[in-house]
Amino acid sequence: MTMNRRDFIKVSTGASGSLVLALSLPGCASVQTGFEPETGEWTPDVWLELDKQDEITFTLARVEMGQGTYTGLTTLIAEELDVDPARIQVKFAPVAPEYRNPFIGLQLTGGSTSVASSWQPLREAGASARLMLVMAAARVWGVDADNCRTDNGRVLHPNGVDSLRYGQLVELADKEVIRGDVPLKPRSEWKYIGKQAGKLDARAKATGTAVYGIDVELPGMVYAVMTRSPRYGGRAQSFNRDEILAMAGVQAAFITERGVAVVANSYWKARKAQQAVRVEWDFSEALDTTVDEVFEGYRKAASEDPGEQERSEGDVEDAIRKAGRVVEAEYEQPYLAHAPMEPMNATAWYHDGGMEIWAPTQAPDLGRIAACRNSDLSPDDVTVHTTFLGGGFGRRLTQDYIEEAAAVAYELKVPVKLIWSREEDIRHGFWRPAMLHRMTASLDGSDLTGWDHQIVGPQILDWYVRNAAPAQYPWAPKFLYNTLGKVGLMVEGLATPKDVSAIEGAIGYPYQVPNVSVRHTHTDPGVPITWWRSVGYSHNGFAVETFMDELAHEAGQDPLEFRRKLLAKEPRHARVLERAAERARWGEPLPEGRARGIALFQSFGTYVAQVVEAGIENGEIRVYKVTASVDCGQVVNPRIVEDQISGGILFGLTAALFGEITFNKGEVQQSNFHDYRLLQMHQVPEVVVDIVDSDEAPTGVGEPGVPPVIPALGNALFALTGKRQRRLPLTA
Description:
With 732 residues, the chain is an alpha+beta fold.
């Protein structure tokens, strides 16, 4: 992504003579920034501020949910500004057009786009500020600016002795004019980009001073809990209101669109009162299904509808008809919860004709819309204050928890904090969709000649627009398709906005096969779904890479060699595959009772190959080691890449070994970590992350670690036992 600095940067003088740079990204409206003498007000919709006291403030437009944007994006500014990243103060951005993700068109953090979308504009912002400061210093000294240097917040005179602090130059720098493009530092001069460094927010998180949504406290605040229908779509008809209102500390109790809200002067009293709530539910439009019925419906749909053609090359039917051998397989993946460490929560306050929201949200733009659903407010009447997020994984893209808090606050006109319990988080969330895959391939000797992949299941954006978009905004469906639909476009090469959540990764099939067909049979059982870490890549990765392993076995070839010969035109795929195999000592003997499995997948522009070493101990699957090779382009901070790939691996192993949400007549059967298990510390394997040195543009790392580890583990278990598992979670 390239742009001329004059297309996006505005310079103005802020309060106390500070130098303020406001970035206006392509396609985003511009706002007036800086100090307004007429009103005495300063509009802080800016990315970077330097003041006379040498304080530097960076406004972070991508939320921090553990994935490292706080550190990574600050490093981009710091590199070009030539200051230590630790010197920069970070604040979270308000909702404004300047802070929208240019890849998506919304102020949204997702799709592993934070570094990729910020790589060029933030570096140009830092470089522009540094150049103006140098020009101002050169003017003071009467020297050529090209002969001045900078070092950690100071401009150095050509004589090597004199220097001026940035803070001494901000007022003068405001008067400088840059003509032409701003030169960026060459890679050879980088001090911070590409170097191992700790996270800038680590101390705040370790000491408890980082404010998460659940930490927000306001004067006069009350606490709300919501009793929701045990079956999605159920409506509360009545409840024992008088009895609840008579309980200690309870201040309000009433029916909302989502259930029965109980409000008290403490969280504990609200929970105690909730235990006494007895609701008469109307289940006439509620979900009434089981997972077995969901898959029966999928199979029926697959047999009746061949699906929409999403990729077609050659003639698959002819290849299968002429094949010496035809291999068929069917794969199932269950519904999955997100289970972030911090349960859903939001604080809302309706006052002075508007609404303020404090929330751990991945999408402040959508949060504003959600806050309006049960009121007469418009999005412009809502202010969202984004906090730290205790995990997101896609769950906090769906704004139901903000909608609930706003509905209660609008009714009471006082600050309200609404908190979900862990049980509510598991039982009443939105899930990664269950999916079915039917695969057929043709083999001519050891050559793969045809590949047919039928994907069966819902599309997330379709479901979201129908069920979660505000009905009072008729523009919402088109708006969401044109924005959220772009998330998959940049990595799947599509030309127009499209919901690719069911097919991403499958249509990007990298292996050179002469005849390829990828189809999607759309069917929706009505289960609430949303984005889940790595989205469609998570289930397509399992289907594609497990089937590739099956084909290697059928062809009588080593799984590594079988893949390698089909990647002659995909050098980045081939490189990570070979590096992972080499570092995992593929082909070398293992202790008895252990085996290796391999898988390769590209998601969000990043290439990842993984080798899993696993066995079975005491009747349970044991993962001993995972070796990952990653090509994510230029790296801002290797430690963050290692952390995110490792985190994705553990997230994927949790899903592979334990993850499953089931229903009984529409009611979720899991409730907490005892029956929706997560990987425990003693089960964590050794993880080795190998990062490819690259000059390519940076891509995402928050999600690409997830897709390959699931099939790699299944392939290891097949190598160990000779039994192929085509349904998740895997069993011993």
